[in-house]
Predict the 3D structure of the following.
Amino acid sequence: MTDTLFDMTLCAALILAAWRVLHSSDHFQAVVLFITFGLILALAWVRLEAPDIAIAEAAVGASLAGVMLLDALRVMRSVGKEHEQEKRWTSVAKLPSFHLFFSFATVLILSVVLISAVTELSDAQGGLTDLVHAELEGSGTKHPVTAVLLNFRGYDTWIELGVLLLAVLGVLSIRECSNLHSLAPPVATTIVLENLVRGIMPLVLLVSGYLLWRGGFAPGGAFQAGVVLGAGCILLWMAGHRSLTMLHDATWRILLILGFLAFLALGSYSLLSTGVFLAYDRQYASIQIFLLESAATLSIGTTLAGLMLALQPLKKDLPR
Amino acid sequence: MTIWNIFSILFCLAGGAFFLAGVVGMLRFPDAMSRLHALTKADNLGLGFIVVGLCLRSLVVPVIIKLLLIWLTVLLASSTACFLVGNYILQEAEEKPQEN
C-alpha cells in the first residue's frame, strides 16, 4: 500500500516536472527543473530495481547534462548581452499550431508503439533474464549487468564507446580545439571553492575506483566510474584549478581513444585466434573484462570532461 | 533490536521535520539570504538526523561509515554552494547601486 502510494507520487512528480520544464518561461528555471526531473527519474529507476541505470541517470542525466545546460545558459547570456538580441524562450504555448500538431502526433505515435511493445513484453517471462543467469558462471563477472555489457553484448559497448569518441571529436573539430592547451586557462574562483575541490578530489578518485571495482559483483561499473571521473575533471576546471592544463597533449589523446582501442585490440586478437570477434576465453574472461572496464573508465571520463571543456572559452577568442 | 528501531524512526522523523521546515522556509522567506539559511538547515541537520536514523537501522559498520561519508560530503558541498550563492548575491548588491 505504502509502496503503491510512493510510486504514484513519484510518477506524478515525474510528469509534473517534465511539464514544468517544457512550460517554464525562464531558461534558468527550466534547467534547474530538468536537473530535478533527472533526479526523480533516478529514484524511479531505483524503484524499478535497476540501480545501474539509476546511478547512470543521476550522474549523466541530472549532473553532467545539467552542468552543460547551465554552461550553455552562461554563454547564451554573454552572447545576448553583446548583440542585445531579444532572447525570449519559446514556450510550448507560443509555438505555431503546425508545430504543436506535429509534436502531438509524434508523441501519440511513440506512445502507441511503446504501449504495444510493453504489452508484448508481458508474454515472455522475464525476457532473457534466465539465460543471462544461466550463463553467468563462465562470463568472468558475478554481476549480470556487467556480464551483459562487457561479455554477452560487448560489441554494443564497443560501438557505444565509438559513438562517444565521435561526439567528442565532432565537438573538438567544430571548436577548432585540438588540445587542452588551446583553451584559455581556467579562471580563478574563490578560495573556498578551490579548497573544497582540493579536498574532495581524492574522494572523487576513490569513488570512481570503487564503482569500477564494484561493477564486478554489484551495481556499478565502467560507465558510472567514468562519469564520476569526468565530473571530477570538470569540477577541477570550473574551480579554476590549473592542473588539467599540465596534462601532456599525447596523454590526453591516448586517454580519449584508450577504451575504444582496448576493445578493438582484444576483439581483433580473439577474431584471429578463435574466429569470433570479442569472444572471451573462459579462463581469462575476468581479467579481460577488468582491463576493458579500466580502459573504458579512463576513456569515458576523459571524453565527458573533453565534451564540456571544449565548450569553454578558447585562447584565440580572448580579448588581448 | 526494537529499541534501536524506535530511535531510528524518531531520528528519521526529526530529519523529515527539518526538511519540511526547510521547504516551507524556501517558499516563504522574503529574500535569497534567508532562503539560503532555510536550505542549508535542511541539508545539514535534516540529512544528519536521517543518516543517524539509518545508521541505527543498519548497525553494520561499513554501511555506517558510508552513510557518514555521504553526510560529510553533502555538508562540505552544501556549505560551499551556500557560500558561492551568498557571495554572488553580495556582489550583485554591490554592483547594482553603481549602475543606477
The interface with chain B takes residues 190, 192-193, 196, 199-200, 203 of chain A (CB under 8 Å).
